[in-house]
Amino acid sequence: MTNLKRPLVQFNNCILRPQYTSKEIFPNPTTLTILPTQKWAFTGTHKTKFLEALAGQYTAIPADSRSYPFLEQQVWPSSVTKLVSFATDIKPAYLSARYESYREPEDVDLASFLKKSLDSTTDGKSAEEHAQVYENVVKRLGLESLLGQWIATLSNGQMRRARLARGMLSSPKILLADEPFLGLDKVSTLTLSRLLGELAPSPHVILGLRTHEPVPEWISHVGVIDESGLIKAGTREEVAETLQDLRDRRNSIFIDQSYDFETAKLLPGRRPGADPVIDIESFTIAYKGKVVLKDLNWTVMQGERWHLRGDNGTGKSTLLSIITGDHPQSWNSKIRLFNEPRKVGRQNYFSINKVIGHASPEIHAIFPSTLTAFQTVSTGFTVGSFLPPSSVSHMATNLTKDEQTERILSLLEYFNVNPDVQFSDLNLNDQKLALFIRAIVKNPEILILDEAFSGMNDQSIFRCKQFVDEWGGTVIAIGHVEDEIPRCDKFIRLYGGENLVEQGVIE
Ligand SMILES: Nc1ncnc2c1ncn2[C@@H]1O[C@H](COP(=O)(O)OP(=O)(O)OP(=O)(O)O)[C@@H](O)[C@H]1O
Known about the structure:
The chain contains 15 helices and 20 strands. The chain has two domains: 9-255, Rossmann fold (3-Layer(aba) Sandwich), CATH 3.40.50; 263-505, Rossmann fold (3-Layer(aba) Sandwich). The chain is α/β, with parallel strands linked by helices. The chain has helices at residues 47-54, 77-80, 110-119, 127-140, 156-169, 186-199, 236-255, 263-266, 316-324, 349-353, 361-366, 373-378, 401-414, 428-440, 458-471, and strands spanning 9-17, 30-34, 40-43, 59-61, 66-67, 81-85, 174-178, 204-208, 221-226, 229-235, 276-287, 290-301, 305-310, 335-337, 340-341, 356-359, 446-450, 474-478, 490-494, 502-505. Helix 3 runs parallel beside helix 5. The strands form four sheets. Strands 6-7-8-3-9-10 form a six-stranded mixed beta sheet, with helices on both faces. It has a six-stranded mixed beta sheet with strand order 16-17-18-13-19-20, with helices on both faces. Helix content is 31%, strand content 21%. The protein starts with 8 loop residues before the first strand and ends with a strand.
């Protein structure tokens, strides 16, 4: 039972510390009251830490300086708050696993994935009530047609909705959704935003937003968090100026041209040529009769920069997996790479990927966390492996070992990533940077950047974009946020299913 007349959360001069450490997460103590009638979003560089604190993580000092007055005394706050953040947590065993029909026993379909969190709830609801909640959530998040599909085969946007549904099914009193719109197309963003706005009071929803994201109109209050702690909080009108300042500061990073450009020194630049690099002719792909791409024609010339567009689930990742040979249906002579029809015996997985550099959320999800940043980048020189180069590796470079080491270290230094830190200990920004550097380190003919910059901080996005622009090779980029893709001159838009694609020049 909860009391909706009392505040949801109250911080009163509260110092927050991780357990077993004496260093607080913010130097400034926090004072803030969140009422059940208000709808809050938090933004700023350290908003995730604050959402974690709202979810009951970290030790509050003094102990009663953080409270949840709306809860009954005996309820443990962390058991009724749910923080859903959107780094993927499903790990297919290997990249192509996503597209295969064979499944490991531990793979589950979406329905089982969702029902797991219903089984574990301790909210005293009856089986019928659970069934009703389940039906309602599935319907509202548009997941009905996907229930029988293996979760590993869901597109990124579909998986995002599934994770949110799972968070809602555990019936939390407060649902904290950190960057729920990351990677979603405009329509899905709007649908999801409306849904989140209508949920309160069951559960109360608090959002984490990136500074440049529009604040949904249903949000009444905004808090801004930086490394010092909560710097501003109030109604959206009261915080509007601070938000504008943050956005202006961000834009000035993107306009600032003062970086010392070293691309040419770090990586030999590539110049456009007159040859087709990728040529796909009248190609169709379907799963058990469900058509994803129909009669696709697409030619990419050397040095061209394509923005691959399309709403969630329209087949963008599928198309890329056709190019990289990760998709079982990609062994088809309608696909030509450097004028060579894709045929067993004439091309193989290694010859294809020798010339392709690739960074994507899927690679991020399955990347071995025990490698150091240096080793992570070194795997960019091997083909079809996440292991650092060894004598048995299929190598994608003619550089000597010393030359490879020098290039890895100079790129890591340029992007300011510590070579010795283990991948799992790098923050999200540096993990993304390490994977981007891994994709470019061998100076590939084709660079595929699938949401490669999303999750990076603004400085890093800017540096990576400048780097790619300067480099000049063939690029295929996916990203729903314009700011997060490098300069492109052409686009191809997928509409999914039987629908035709649209192609054109970017003005
Ligand atoms: N093995 C599979 N079996 C059935 N359906 C699949 C399989 N793999 C992918 N799909 C479906 O194919 C469609 C295209 O998926 P894909 O990941 O290519 O979309 P996307 O455009 O990259 O989406 P997003 O922007 O959300 O990442 C989706 O509806 C997805 O559920």
